[in-house]
Amino acid sequence: MRRSPRAVRILRAALAVLCAALPAIGCAAIPEYSPPQAVKGADESRRASPVAEPERDADPLTLVRNFILASSSPDGDHAAARLYLTKQAQDQWNTKASPSVIADSFDTLYSPSVTPSGSASRTTVVLRATKVGRLGPDSAFTPEVGTEEVPMQVERQPDGQWRISEPPDGVRVTLSGFTENYHQARLYFFDPDRQVLVPDPRYVVAQPPSGMPARVMDLLLAGPSQALGGAVRSAIPPTVSTRTNPVETPDGALEVNLDQLGDQTVQNKRLIVAQIVRSLQGVTNSRVRIESGGMPLFPDHPDWLPGDIPSYDAQTMPGADLQGLVVAGGRVRSLKDGSPVPGPAGSGEYQVVSGAQSADGSELAVVVRRPAGGMALRVGRYGETPREVDLPASQLTRPTWAPGGSTTDASNELWTVADGNVVRVVKTAEGVWVPQAVNAAELTQLGPITDLRLSRDGVRVAAVAGGRLVVSSVVRNQDSSVTLQAPRALQWGSLAGVVDVDWQSQDSLVVATSSPTTPVARLPVDGLQVDRYSSANLTAPVTAVAAAPGRPVMVVDASGAWTANDIGEVWRSMPINFGAGSLPFYPG
């Protein structure tokens, strides 16, 4: 029970009299009640130290270089970087715009129109940098590609030191500086059916650590990122705010006090709890105490840990008993022992080009060559004769399944690209698979689509378009039409010749490329960084890749199929060599 401040003062006065009367006993100081406050992180004390002064007698080129390096720290509104500016420029520098991220390697050079001399009092220095991306107003990273040249005026001050008098508009941050000073937080929203929690990566200032929960909650209440707008849903009403910043309570819980929540069903309150707890788990290890108007959202369960949240991603995982399949020699075979699957897909009756198994394993889709030319899509129960879909085409990409309605429901939707047009194939109530066009105009502008994979939550697609890796969001409209929005080319400045892609998790991808130096790579869904798998043991070109949560990555090169569990591992040949040109795939 919380006592009033007046009651606490009376109690302290009484105890003080008692302590005076009984000096031999001794009394500890009795603190007054104070509201919960943020607990300082172990490394926050260093932030109180003054920022370092610029190097004395630095030449203009070095000054601008060090200014860019100092700009990576957002502390005190970029206080460290402001020391490189003249007094007037410090007041004029615009730091409110979202920071631009540039490559670690950049150049500073004198403008060609300027001839620096030892007696000059003013010069122009040009920053030449490779763009990596930009942190948007929603704190989501958006990749950008290209180079930029940014001029800066530099003036000699009365004390002989150079300072920047005309800084660039906005802040440039090196990639290393960005990852050091910003923390990736996965915010979570629901798919349109409110069955799966979908990660939405954002980046918040890392210091002080105690403030990160408040920054995450502000972003969560503001809704999904611009790229996912329309593709996901939030169970938290848009009117909701927090009455106070999330703070650590004296008993070690992180208190989140919601305001203007209104009446909610028990089911919706559970969804709200799931979004909050999962979104905060990356920035706190504390129990999360969720309240509404100062009262527990669930009186019988005031505090929550991630383990208390039901699994909202089980249907994105392939079943443990499903080992995966492979198309080899025109047949679909088991990855486990190489045996053909039952039915015409494995018997050789069809000339199978590619295939996909639903996440629950009950359905199989195959692309087959027509005897008269062209390709056909066939879909049916695993082991049975699949029906041909009315989708004639010269070329069809390998199919990709949407998740089912639950972990026990078979999917009723799969996607492919027919002669350059994105198509989703939907199962009707009568059991007929019917093709429906997808509005992919923004995506197709980036080049011919040679591969397309739905994410395991069905909210995004990854595509190979014009040899580049592109991610788009899937927006399901009220009229049942579907649109691919906000296509974003990931790392296309460093990932050349992408030939195949698969989802390793809901927000990470593995790609195969035609590059002998980077045959296989992994990257997050926003493309901030790329991690390269070892090229040891692989023989270029790599032509296929398969990935899934909790499964080794499989690739196929000129000699056959290989597996690796993680970055840096040497590739191991599979026990059964299905040969070059084979196409392995996990369910989903």
From TrEMBL:
Keywords: Lipoprotein, Signal. The lineage of its organism: Bacteria, Bacillati, Actinomycetota, Actinomycetes, Pseudonocardiales. Residues 41-56 have a biased composition (Basic and acidic residues). InterPro entries: GerMN, LpqB_C, LpqB_N. Residues 1-28 form the signal peptide. This is Lipoprotein. It comes from the Bacteria. Residues 36-56 are annotated as: Disordered. Residues 213-301 form the GerMN domain. It comes from Gandjariella thermophila.
